[in-house]
Specification:
Length: 357
DNA sequence: CACTCGTGGGA
DNA sequence: TTCCCAAGAGT
């Protein structure tokens, strides 16, 4: 069995590359056209643990609104958070803004072209530094993401489960990464992982590396890469209060800057705890005389826990009361708030109780 | 090193 | 329905 030949993968990529908004298509032999580093960086941040389908719309919105790095550096963080709402992993949005500021302040507004300097920027880890160096600057960086882990684990039939196998995966990835067209090679690995060497039902018959793959003809290709067993997801409980005014506006507040959903908007509520302690009456702000508890709680599953929220709704007794660190969001404004998906679920559940329908 | 940190879609 | 997962980073 021969070592996987980069030329075979690059030839496959030349005819099968996905067309993506942040990408420059593979060029004819001898030509090299590099993409805008700003767009490469933005796409890489958005794509961290996030599907291409989910990213596309956000990428279009961001690049339309902030066409250049300088535009993003000049933006308000809260505007960036509002634009990011729904995409998840919100620390990415904060680091995105911090990174834009740092590149302007410390690098004259141009991204550094090497992994070492890229790695020092907020939100850019080992993978993203290598990806930007390779894709935006065509540097021969070893790019190891989830796709590469899967492809390499299969090519070399690595039986040790993740994450323990990572050092060996990197070693093998280094072995196959060429000095020629490293940017296209990195993107080719991702396209291969996304369209051929997929997690569940890989299409080995269409793979340019089938002949050099040690598991292509196994019955259990999809069992690679092997992974350590996952721990069970606990359930947390909380109570939230959807307070309306007669004009249909709703009371919101801002979550703490750090931690889960950091800096995002929410309706007021209790802490989320393991016990379903319903201290609702004690917590409820004294701005509504009458409260209604929804029959059905709102449920939402995060990466590491499941959340069950009891939802109480009420209409404020007096118009435009000022409440410290809260604000009233009008019907028109709610859509543009930095509300994470779980809070949009809460508002949707309370919608039948909103005045002035 | 192990844990935190979102979401929507597909099987 | 339930589970898994998708171009990881920060601590």
């Amino acid at each position: 069995m021969s070592t996987p030949d980069p030329k075979l993968l690059l030839a496959w990529y030349d005819s099968h590359a996905r067309t993506l908004p942040w990408r420059v298509p593979p060029q004819p032999a001898g030509r090299r056209v590099l993409p805008d580093p700003y767009r490469v960086w933005l796409s890489e941040i958005m794509l961290q643990q996030t599907t291409v389908a989910a990213v596309k719309g956000y990428f279009d919105d961001f690049t339309r609104r902030w066409p250049s790095l300088a535009d993003l550096a000049a933006a308000d963080l809260d505007d960036v958070l509002r634009a990011w709402a729904g995409l998840g992993y919100y620390s990415r949005a904060r680091n995105l803004k911090a990174c834009a500021n740092a590149v302007v302040a410390d690098h004259g507004g141009a991204f550094p072209d090497n992994e070492t300097e890229l790695r020092k920027l907020p939100g850019i880890g080992a993978y993203t530094a290598a990806a930007i160096a390779a894709i935006a600057f065509d540097r021969p960086a070893v790019v190891v993401d989830g796709n590469v882990e899967r492809v390499v684990s299969r090519l070399f039939r690595l039986t040790e489960p993740l994450p323990g196998s990572r050092p060996l995966i990197r070693e093998k990835a280094t072995l196959v990464t060429p000095n020629h067209r490293p940017g296209d090679f990195a993107q080719a690995m991702m396209d291969l992982g996304a369209t051929i060497c997929t997690p569940r039902k890989p299409v080995c018959g269409l793979c340019p590396w089938e002949k050099s793959c040690l598991v292509a003809h196994d019955a259990d290709v999809a069992q690679f890469p092997r992974k350590a067993p996952k721990t069970a997801r606990p359930t947390r409980h909380g109570t939230v209060f959807v307070v309306f005014q007669a004009d249909g506006s709703v009371l919101l507040r801002k979550r703490p800057e750090k931690g889960l959903l950091g800096g995002m908007a929410e309706v007021p509520g209790t802490e989320w705890t393991a016990q379903s302690a319903d201290h609702a009456e004690k917590f409820a702000p004294f701005i509504c005389t009458k409260w209604t508890k929804l029959n059905r709680p709102v449920e939402h599953t995060f990466t590491h826990f499941h959340l069950v929220l009891s939802v109480w709704t009420g209409v404020a007794d007096h118009a435009n009361q000022t409440i410290d660190k809260h604000w009233w969001s009008s019907r028109e404004a709610v859509a543009g708030e930095a509300l994470p998906t779980v809070m949009r679920k809460v508002l949707k559940a309370a919608e039948p109780h909103r005045p002035g329908l």
